[in-house]
């Protein structure tokens, strides 16, 4: 077999640290080669989830049509230092702990209805149980109920709001010395329904203490939403390939909760998707970046089948579309 069109396989080595030495450099190479208007771009993303969505007893293939932005903040408190035998009444560690408690006790508001998550619910509604089917088919009417149900699980709650995670905490260096400062890094994954400015304003209000310093360490805007649905040939091609390899799965547009290297490839196509062709349970997902992280041999085999089938199908689709006399050159992927 030899392709009728051009495929680009870009494999970076530093996606976990923003891809600046990998994907960014690869994107520069593509730019120099004059690459543009690709049929679609596909990167890692949400998996096929089984048993994760309440009321749905079939696997759901969540195809990311966008991804959350992010914001990292340094939250710092200062106070008098001293000997632990005569501790100050107001300590920096206490102030910081209170600030973090307030922050986590006041989550960001639900943004259900402002992103692609309601279309995900509509897509899986026909395969859901009663009365979930009624609610998912009519999210405009049952939005409050759906939001409450989604809030019960961290995986589905993350789809509807900006999340808050304290990832680093630092204070003293000696067991008998009260530290004069304490700080933490708070990482947000920002829902596309919110701006970065709104996230920062919410945090300052939630902390409610002017003595606590909040500094923005880094940000990334949410990715634009790529076309999906029956009018998008690229999305339909990926969805059809999912059905071929996982016949019982329901493809649905979704919001990727994390971040990928696609930020460096947005200039090459308006059809940018994020999908991981692995069938994962809630237990499997809990191991990601955690204890005993793993992928089964069966999942690796099916993933290989998925990519092979997608390449062959995409090659045929692009070749057919570009084989009419009105097209001068073949398409690219």
UniProtKB/TrEMBL annotation:
<protein>
    <submittedName>
        <fullName>Carboxypeptidase PM20D1.2 isoform X1</fullName>
    </submittedName>
</protein>
<comment type="pathway">
    <text>Lipid metabolism; fatty acid metabolism.</text>
</comment>
<feature type="domain" description="Peptidase M20 dimerisation">
    <location>
        <begin position="66"/>
        <end position="201"/>
    </location>
</feature>
<comment type="similarity">
    <text>Belongs to the peptidase M20A family.</text>
</comment>
<keyword id="KW-0121">Carboxypeptidase</keyword>
<dbReference type="InterPro" id="IPR002933">
    <property type="entry name" value="Peptidase_M20"/>
</dbReference>
<comment type="function">
    <text>Secreted enzyme that regulates the endogenous N-fatty acyl amino acid (NAAs) tissue and circulating levels by functioning as a bidirectional NAA synthase/hydrolase. It condenses free fatty acids and free amino acids to generate NAAs and bidirectionally catalyzes the reverse hydrolysis reaction. Some of these NAAs stimulate oxidative metabolism via mitochondrial uncoupling, increasing energy expenditure in a UPC1-independent manner. Thereby, this secreted protein may indirectly regulate whole body energy expenditure.</text>
</comment>
<dbReference type="Pfam" id="PF01546">
    <property type="entry name" value="Peptidase_M20"/>
</dbReference>
<keyword id="KW-0862">Zinc</keyword>
<dbReference type="GO" id="GO:0006508">
    <property type="term" value="P:proteolysis"/>
</dbReference>
<keyword id="KW-0479">Metal-binding</keyword>
<keyword id="KW-0378">Hydrolase</keyword>
<dbReference type="InterPro" id="IPR047177">
    <property type="entry name" value="Pept_M20A"/>
</dbReference>
<dbReference type="GO" id="GO:0004180">
    <property type="term" value="F:carboxypeptidase activity"/>
</dbReference>
<dbReference type="GO" id="GO:0043605">
    <property type="term" value="P:amide catabolic process"/>
</dbReference>
<dbReference type="GO" id="GO:0004046">
    <property type="term" value="F:aminoacylase activity"/>
</dbReference>
<dbReference type="Pfam" id="PF07687">
    <property type="entry name" value="M20_dimer"/>
</dbReference>
<dbReference type="GO" id="GO:0043604">
    <property type="term" value="P:amide biosynthetic process"/>
</dbReference>
<dbReference type="GO" id="GO:0046872">
    <property type="term" value="F:metal ion binding"/>
</dbReference>
<keyword id="KW-0645">Protease</keyword>
<dbReference type="GO" id="GO:0006520">
    <property type="term" value="P:amino acid metabolic process"/>
</dbReference>
<dbReference type="InterPro" id="IPR036264">
    <property type="entry name" value="Bact_exopeptidase_dim_dom"/>
</dbReference>
<dbReference type="InterPro" id="IPR011650">
    <property type="entry name" value="Peptidase_M20_dimer"/>
</dbReference>
